[in-house]
Design brief:
Largest sheet: 5 strands, parallel
Shape: globular
Distance between the termini: 38 Å
Strand order of the largest sheet: 2-1-3-4-5
Number of helices: 11
Low-confidence stretches: 144-150
Length: 224
């Protein structure tokens, strides 16, 4: 199926460049562009794109608040891929907290951008396991203490689901988790689906962040 994408950036040249790059990729259609956060929210509600490629720094309503407003709408299936200039931009942590499904550097190639869009659209994997581990660990450090109500939510998981969640938070792919637990990859996908459903989460990114926020996974340590 074709992935319907919207580009949100206050720079016209960036919007045009990304539209051309993505439009040249198979299975992706750019259906709209937005000039700022307010425009992105309005068009997301009207057009319901599968993925929004969202710049963080925009005038008026920034990309973080726009992401929050979009992902807070339960009936809106749109996922958000945030753009950043630096790989450890402090705003990325807030974007993840706001519900973004992933992030990408602005200097990415057309192929990398397209792959990131596909990954976020599927909600199937984090963009870069190595960078994700570093990013989310730092996010957790900046994010403060765990919230007790969220910890209760974690307790609804089975032991195996908890193991899978820990490995997701460590940045492992489904194939790597399957090898670690000596199970089939499809079994991992089934457990992942159960985790998202029980915890009322949209994707793996939110699951990984929640694992850190609740203290299930502590930066610098491995395992349970």
């Amino acid at each position: 199926m074709t992935i319907r994408v919207m580009i949100a950036d206050d720079q016209a040249m960036v919007r045009e460049a990304f539209s051309v790059l993505l439009g040249a990729q198979p299975g992706i259609e750019v259906i709209a562009t937005a000039v700022d956060g307010l425009d992105a929210v309005a068009k997301a509600e009207e057009l319901r794109p599968d993925v929004i490629v969202m710049d963080i720094r925009m005038p008026g309503l920034n990309g973080i608040e726009a992401t929050r407003r979009i992902t807070d709408q339960a009936d809106l299936p749109t996922r958000v891929l945030v753009l950043t200039t630096f790989d450890l931009d402090e705003y990325v942590y807030e974007a993840l907290r706001a519900g973004a499904g992933g992030f990408l550097l602005k200097d990415a190639s057309g192929v990398q951008l397209a792959e990131a869009v596909r990954v976020v659209a599927a909600g199937d994997a984090l963009l870069s396991p190595g960078l994700t581990k570093r990013l989310i660990a730092e996010f957790a450090r900046l994010g403060g203490s765990a919230k007790p109500p969220a910890r209760v939510r974690i307790d609804v998981l089975t032991n195996r689901e908890t193991e899978v969640l820990v490995l997701v938070a460590r940045g492992l792919s489904n194939a790597e988790i399957a090898a670690e637990l000596v199970v089939a990859e499809q079994t991992v996908k089934t457990h992942m689906g159960g985790i998202l459903q029980k915890l009322h989460l949209r994707d793996r990114t939110q699951a990984a962040v929640l694992a850190y926020e609740t203290g299930l996974v502590v930066p610098g340590r491995t395992g349970l």
